[in-house]
Write a structure and sequence with these properties.
The chain has 171 residues and is of the alpha/beta class. It is 41% helix and 13% strand. It contains seven helices and six strands. The strands form two sheets. Strands 1-2-3-4 form a four-stranded parallel beta sheet. It has a two-stranded parallel sheet with strand order 5-6. The longest helix has 18 residues. The chain is elongated and about 50 Å long. The two termini are 18 Å apart.
């Protein structure tokens, strides 16, 4: 039922600034790797699934603020005809800036809808999304595929016609 309203993306895990207690993945892009190593990791992630429209940045405060590390990865995504979504959680992220200079389709999330995954938290996130959409004529929200998130978003979508809002995929 929600397939008409969502874009399919891969998550690209980027190296976090302080990973104390965070397990490093074998396929995370990292600032201390050679450019080719990060590209190979990206290509491996892309080989695992098909039909995706792009990537959603996940974690990565160190990587997303490093122009030298980020540019080749974003360029590879551009070459593949995909898009890149900045999750909006890293204040100094260079994703949108670099993507703009290399003509990579990009977006930056305005609201992390279920940062607080409680029903009340999700409803607050959705209210913030509506507020921003009304103010700016559009807004981008991201959320996890948690059962409570999906249930609340599906119920919320039924209220949109009365608010004169349209839910559209990121693509």
């Amino acid at each position: 039922p929600c397939q008409d309203h969502e874009a399919v993306t891969n998550k690209i895990l980027l190296f976090v600034n302080d990973f104390t207690g965070v397990a490093e993945s074998t396929f995370d892009a990292q600032t201390d790797l050679k450019q080719n190593d990060n590209i190979e990791r990206l290509q491996y992630i892309m080989s695992l699934s098909i039909g995706n429209v792009g990537f959603l940045q996940s974690m990565g405060s160190r990587f997303t603020t490093s122009q030298d590390a980020l540019t080749p990865v974003l360029n590879e995504i551009r070459i593949r005809g995909l898009l890149m979504i900045d999750n909006g959680l890293v204040a100094q992220s260079q994703i949108v800036k670099i993507a703009s200079t290399i003509a990579l389709p990009r977006a930056r999330s305005d609201v992390y809808i279920d940062q607080d995954p409680s029903r009340l938290g999700i409803m607050r996130g959705l209210s913030k999304l509506v507020e921003l959409a009304e103010k700016n004529a559009s807004a981008i929200g991201i959320a996890r595929a948690l059962p409570s998130t999906l249930t609340n978003i599906m119920a919320w979508t039924k209220t949109l016609p009365g608010k004169k809002l349209i839910l559209a995929p990121i693509s």
